[in-house]
Structure formats: C-alpha cells, structure tokens
Amino acid sequence: MHKLGRGHRDKIQQFITITGASEKVALQALKASDWHLEGALDVFYSQPQIRSFTDTRHLEELYNRYKDPYSDMILADGITLLCNDLQVDPQDIVMLVVSWHMKAATMCEFSKQEFIGGLQAVGIDSLEKFRERITFMRSELKDEHKFREIYNFAFGWAKEKGQKSLALDTAIGMWQLLFAEKHWPLVDHWCQFLQARHNKAISRDTWSQLLEFARTIDPALSNYDAEGAWPYLIDEFVEYLYENGIIQKDDYSQKQ
Amino acid sequence: MTMNERKTIDLEQGWEFMQKGITKVKNILEGLPEQQFSSEDRIMLYTTIYNMCTQKPPHDYSQQLYEKYRESFDEYITSTVLPSLGEKHDEFMLRELVKRWANHKLMVRWLSRFFYYLDRYFIARRSLPPLNEVGLTRFRELVYQNLNGKVRDAVISLIDQEREGEQIDRSLLKNVLDIFVEIGMGQMYCYEGDFEATMLKDTAAYYSRKATSWILQDSCPDYMLKAEDCLKREKDRVSYYLHSSSEPKLLEKVQHELLSVYATQLLEKEHSGCHALLRDDKVEDLSRMFRLFSKIPRGLDPISSIFKQHVTAEGTALVKQAEDAASNKKADKRDVLGMQEQVFVRKVIELHDKYLAYVNDCFQNHSLFHKALKEAFEVFCNKGVAGSSTAELLATFCDNILKKGGSEKLSDEAIEETLEKVVKLLAYISDKDLFAEFYRKKLARRLLFDKSANDDHERSILTKLKQQCGGQFTSKMEGMVTDLTLARENQTSFEEYLSNNPNANPGIDLSVTVLTTGFWPSYKSFDLNLPAEMVKCVEVFRDFYETKTKHRKLTWIYSLGTCNLIGKFEPKTMELIVTTYQASALLLFNSSDRLSYSEIMTQLNLSDDDVVRLLHSLSGLKYKILNKEPNTKTIAPTDYFEFNSKFTNKMRRIKIPLPPVDEKKKVIEDVDKDRRYAIDASIVRTMKSRKVLGHQQLVLECVEQLGRKFKPDFKAIKKRIEDLITRDYLERDKDNPNIFRYLA
C-alpha cells in the first residue's frame, strides 16, 4: 500500500467500497486494467476466479425467503418483499438492472436459477451486500455500453411470453423509465406520437433502433437522413415532429 | 580511255557556263526575250555538272556546286523577287506572290535538272537535303518568312469582305492558301500556325460582333435562320478556298459564337423562344433549332428540358381540365362522368401522337427527346383524375372500346390503332399492376356477361400488352379468354349428357361456365341460399362434372349468374331477365305473398348491402315488381314487400339491371396485398443471393426488380423489411444498423 501513489490508493478504496472485495483482489483487478476503475470493475465482475466467495447456503436461504409458496419461483409478492428489504420502490429502474444481472426472462418473475445464479455472478450472498450494491447498480445505467445492453434486455423482459412484439402501453412505460435515466428530450413527443398515430405493438427492431436514434440523432434532427434505414415508424415520427411544428421545418425542407 | 584524257574543268570556268544557263532561266521567268532551251543546251548544262563532279580531287567540285546552287536562288530572290513583292500591297501583293511562287517552283525544277547529278551521288552519299528541297526552303526562308504576316492579314481582310457580301477573287485566295500548304512540304504547320489560327480568331471575333447585335434585334426564328445561313456559307468557304481540314474548326468557332454563347438567351426569348415555338407549333423552326443545336456539345439538353416542361404543362392542363369537368358534372349522372374520363384518355392519346411526331420529325428520333417525352408523360400520367388513377382510366377506356355498345363507335382498324396507342401510354404508368387488375375485372365482366364485342380485338390487345409488359403480365388474361372457349365446349357436352340422361334433367335450362380459379378475379362464392329449384340444377351439373374429371373442386359463384324467369302478371305474362340474386329473391314470393326485409335477408343468407341493392332494383321506380311498404324511395330494415301482380311493361321481355358493386376499393386492396408479397419476394430473393447488403442498395434493387410492374413506395419497402426482420428472414448488422444480413 505504501508504495502506491495517492490516486491509486483512492481507487483501491473506491473499488473496495463498491465491490466489497479484499484489498488484494482490488489491487489485482486494478493492475490488470491499468488503473481504470471502470475497467477493473468489469474485470472483477466478469471473471469468476477473482470474485469474492459467495456462500450458496446463504443464497438458498435468501431465495426461500422470497419464493412463492406454491411454485418454485419468485413471483410478484416475493419481488415486493425483496424491494421492501432493499428499500427500493418496485417501480424503480434499478430493479430492471437487477433483473438484467439475473438474466431474468420475464418481468416480475425470477426462477431459482436466475435468482441464485444472478446473485452469485455479481458476488452477493447477503441482503446487506445486496443493499450496498444497489447504488452501484444504479450507476451502471450511466455506462453507455451497459445502458444499451440493459435497454435491449428490457424488450424481451417486458414483453408478454410468446409474443414477438411489445404491447404499446408497456413499451411507453419502459421508455419513460429508461429515457428518464438517459436523457432524451423527444421522449414525450415520441410517446404522444405513438398513441396518436400508431397504437399498435412495438417490434424489437423499432425498439432497438429507437435507442440508436436517440443516441446518434441530435434533438434538432440536423443530422437525420430520410434516406437512412430507420424503421418507418421513426421516419413517421420525424414527419410528425415537423408537421406539428415541434421542430422547425426550414432545415428539413432543404434536405428534401 | 578517252574519258581519262578529258580536259579538267576548273570551277570558275565551269560556273561561268552554268551561270549563263541560269540567267537564261531567269530571263524566261521574268518574261524577257530569250530563246527557248534546246535539248542540247540542257544536255550541255547537265554534262558540265557531271564533269565537274566526277573529276579527281582536288578538282571534284561537288560541294562547291551544291553551295552555288543554293546561292543562285538567294541571289535571284534578293535581287528580283523581294523588291517586286515589296512595292505591291494587299490584293496586288497576293497576285504577285502567287506568280512568284509559281516561277520559283519552275526555277527549282529547271535548276534541279541541271544539277541533277548532285542529287544522285553527292547528296545521297552525304545525306544532305535534296536539290528540290533546298530550292523550296530558300523561298520559305527568304520570302515566306518575311511576308507571311502581311499575306495572312490580306487574306483575312478579303474573307471578311466576302462575309460582308462583296465579290472577291476566290481562286486568288485558293492559290495563296495553297502556298501555305505547299510551303510546309507535306506538313500542315505553316498553314495551321501562320494562317489558320489567326483566321479562326478573326472568325470568332467577327461572329461574336454579329451575334451581339442579332441577339438583341432578331426573334429566335430569324436568328436561327441567320445562323444556319452563316454556317452554310462558312462551309462553302472551306470548299472554295480553305483547306478541308479547317472545316470542323471553323464551324466549331461559328457555332460557338452564334449558338453556344447565346444558347440560353436565344432559347428563352420571351415571345419567340423554344417555349413559344412549341406553343405555336412552329415545326420548321423547331427542326432548325434541333439541327443547329445538335452540333454543339450538350446543345440539346436545354431544348429537351424545355420540351419536357412544355409537354408536362400541356398534360397537366389536360388533367386539370378533366378534373374541373368531373367536379362540375358530379351532380349529373354517372355515365356522363364516365364520358369525361373517356374524353380525357382520348386527349392524352392525341397529345402523345402530336408530340411523338415532334420527336420523330423535328427532333430526328433523338433519344434525348424520347426520354423527355417519356418523363413528361410519366409526370402527369401518374397523377390520376378525380380520384381515379390513370391506370383505372385506361382500363375503363379499353373496356369502352371492347364492349358491345360501348361509347366509342369505331371501325376495326380504328379500334386496333386506338388499342395500340393505349398500350403505348401504359408504358408511362408506374402502377401497371393496378391497370392489370382493373383490366382483368372488366375483361371478366365482358367475357362472362357476353359483352365482348369482338374476340379478335380481345386477343389482339392481349398480344400488344404481352409485347409491352411481358408474358407474366398477360398470362391470367389469356387464361381467361381461353377458359371461355373451353367453357363453351363444356356446355355442349353437358347438353349432350342431359339428352342422354333424360331423368337427370332438372327441368330448367342450365348453362354453366366453368373457369379456372387462378386466372379470374376473386369473387364471393356459395354465399346465397339457392332456391330449391336451382339446387337441383347445381347437383345435376356436379354429377355431370364428376363423370368428366376427378380431383377437381367446383366452386359456385352465384353473384355472376343470370336467370330468365317467366313472370305471370295479371295484365300479361312477361319474361324477366334478372341476376341469380334477384331471381332467388323473386322466387321467395312463389310461396308467400308478403315478406319482411329481415325474412328476405335470412332466407337468402345475404348481407345487408346485397339485400338493399337487390330489393331496390326490384321495387324501384322503373320496374316495380315488388310493392314496398311504406312506399318510400329508400330501403329500410323495417320494410315489407309484396308481389306486385299488376306490374306490366310495354315490352314482353325486360331486363332488370342490378347495379354492380363498386369494385374499385377491392381492386386497390387486392393490388396492395399482391404488392406486399411481391416486395417480400424481391427482398428475400435479393438477400438470398447477396447475404449482406446496405439499406440503400437493397431498396434500389427492389425498385429495379419491381419497376416493370409498379413503382414501390420507399415506405412500403421499409415496412416489408421490418416485417421480414420480425419474421427472422433478416437481421440488422450489429455494428451498422444500415446493413442487413440474410438469415438462412
């Protein structure tokens, strides 16, 4: 420790606060990622061998605490209880991140394997650790790459089983939740547009392309190309924006 | 031996003798009195040279004589030629020059003969310039080099005089310019460098001056006349006295100054430009315009674009005219509206005839103008009139021509010709599939209701369509026409069957048209509850059909049927020609006198729309076979109907029409559905072969593939792509959402 500079020591400290790992593990991970905290965290969570030991017995107990009395799964009630324990609102977007870590197939459900496997993978074996980790999970949404993964995960997670597309109401709810996190000024117009003009389910393609659109096209649409491969719903949204004078037309007409 | 003993001639002595000969030549050239050379004289001169060159060194004077030869020219030129040229000017100088050049050439010929022996050995051995060349070079260096500037200016000023209409001595110019060519001794650099370049520059300046004033004072046709005249005269000029290689350069200059420079100004002259010429049908001026501008690079582009604008405007005006007429007549009867559309198509055909003739005659069949015509027609032919697309109008137009008692009364040739033109117009329509569908609907009506006037015409238009749009386009229609022939044969054998099996006879004359499902438009089938009498018919026919074929399913389309009923009315018995629907409704009244709307509906098993339609036809004003309660114009679900036994008509046989359902919406929907499949197929076909493709290319490929049938809308293609993504035929590339991959 004494050999390290102040900056490095701070990072180790942060790493330990976030992961709850030992100093040795922290040093190892940080060195491996050339002292980038983010990178080290990635390394830490993606490589099981340096993950801190989790006790399956504890996880088993934790699982049983939330398990539905009539089936081998955690269902809505269990999740409500879990949220209470974690002191998190069930509507909180962080629950989406939790589900993402658990690779949950469907909203409001965790199978035993998802729950235990998921917690194991992130190195949680107690409610305290879980609660501590929530802050970090929330911060994961700030990471652009992870956000995209979570965003794309959300489609499959939120849609009805056996359906190919996502019901419009659910989709709008998810978008409002997600884009509150990753600020996109047009989200409200988008939702209004869908209700006014579309009123049908959303395909996976439209779902994932919307994030690309929000990410790459600036809110004034100056770099929008009508000839591009955007899904037609997005093209129509752009037309809607111009028609309703939400975006000024002059720039657009030049491009036409 | 005598040769060796020959007396040696020394240089001075020999040269003195030669000099005499040379002086004699000069005198002859100058026209001084002198005797002609005799052959002995010439032999002596030659021999002297020969002897002087063949003496043993140091008495071999070859080198000296070669120099003396050259000096003789120099001496003559400086002493005589230059002074005589120097004192003359302009045309006179030119004449003198021509004379001097002719003399010089003569002198070279004489002298080179005298000195011929030099050419044979001395010059050949030392690779020196030959005598002839030395002689001509002297003229070039001493005379031509000094004077060519002056000569050129004199020539050009004469050309300019001629351009202004004066008479000039063309042969003089021809001779002078020949000097420029000859002096190059086989090469053109003297002519080109010393004369042509300046002449072209002068020409450009001359016509630039002319054009500046003409363009202001003359109308476009006058200006073109002048330009054409100038070009002709310049071309003549070349043939009179310029070297033929100058023609393209000269004409290019004139064209540039007269046409290229003022092209826009000329073509867009307000009252006489290209627009005005097209408007006023100035065929000759347009032809001239084409001739002139076809010669300058990209000269036809603006004309073809004006032509396109003009035709587009004319066509759009027709559309507007038809549109106005349609909205004015809306209140009137429907067939009047039909007439308007008929007139519109006629006018479009006339417009096409007119401007196609322009393209062929005025514009010499040039591809640029064919393209302009095509693009112009594509613009307004795809606009549609009063809610109908041109595709539909064309199909209706054909129907009117081909059906019995259509609005057009034409001779066979005229019909053929008109059909030919309609098919030509079809090339400009992007929704060819829509035309095909409407055409098929109307063809079906013509064939099934025996309304087709002439089988030959039906087949002939199909042949034309096939040529224009390909076999796939017409295969169904051809199938329909063939089907009908087969159906007739089938009917004959059915009648035979009935006469052979008298107990199978249902007691009603029955004629059935058996058609192939795939060829014909789709119709509702098995919808009606047939009256018992007719059910028997159906069964009999089914039995017959099963004896002929196996594994074929008969589907009955009652909506297309016709029945002849005998109506026993109190005043008299009449024959009613009605549709199967109407007949079924009327037969209900055989068993009960009074029926409610809902009873009729349930007994017939038809939809509200159908029931209203057919009750309206039976209880309407014209043929009131059913009395309605209450006696109002519209049919309501609460109405009651009663057989009107008092009904009569002055005819013994009446046809009660059932207004056809407007099929337009269905046709458009059908076409839309077919298009979705076509786009899907095209995308999958493309992606299957390419595997990975960018969005733009994929869209272009589809448009390309489908263009023969219809013009797919980009949005529609996009929707289909997305649908195929959902159905896991395609996926977006993970890194580039603009690229699609085929999932096999």
Automatic annotation (TrEMBL), chain A:
Pinpoint the DCUN1 domain residues.
54-242
Give Gene Ontology CC terms.
Answer: ubiquitin ligase complex
UniProt-listed CDD domains: UBA_DCNL
Cytoplasm is among the record's keywords: no
Q: What Gene Ontology biological process does one annotation of this record name?
A: protein neddylation
Which keywords belong to this entry?
Answer: Ubl conjugation pathway
InterPro entries according to UniProt: DCN-prot, DCN1-like_PONY, PONY_dom, UBA-like_sf
Establish whether keyword Ligase is in the entry: no
MF terms (GO), sorted A to Z: cullin family protein binding; ubiquitin conjugating enzyme binding; ubiquitin-like protein binding
Q: Which PANTHER family match?
A: DEFECTIVE IN CULLIN NEDDYLATION PROTEIN, RP42 RELATED
The record describes the protein's role as:
Neddylation of cullins play an essential role in the regulation of SCF-type complexes activity.
Designated name of the protein: Defective in cullin neddylation protein
Species of origin: Rubroshorea leprosula
From TrEMBL, chain B:
Keyword annotations for this protein, in alphabetical order, are: Isopeptide bond, Ubl conjugation, Ubl conjugation pathway
Cullin family profile domain location: 389-619
Q: GO biological process: any one?
A: ubiquitin-dependent protein catabolic process
An example molecular function term from Gene Ontology annotations: ubiquitin protein ligase binding
Entry annotated with the keyword Ubl conjugation: yes
Fetch the SUPFAM superfamilies from UniProt.
Cullin homology domain, Cullin repeat-like, Winged helix' DNA-binding domain
Record's Gene Ontology CC terms? Answer: cullin-RING ubiquitin ligase complex
> Cross-referenced InterPro entries, in alphabetical order?
Cullin, Cullin-like_AB, Cullin_CS, Cullin_homology, Cullin_homology_sf, Cullin_N, Cullin_neddylation_domain, Cullin_repeat-like_dom_sf
Keyword check for Methyltransferase: no
Query: Which PANTHER family does the entry link to?
Result: CULLIN (PTHR11932)
Recorded family membership: Belongs to the cullin family.
Per its record, how is this protein called by name?
Cullin-1
- Give the organism the record lists: Rubroshorea leprosula
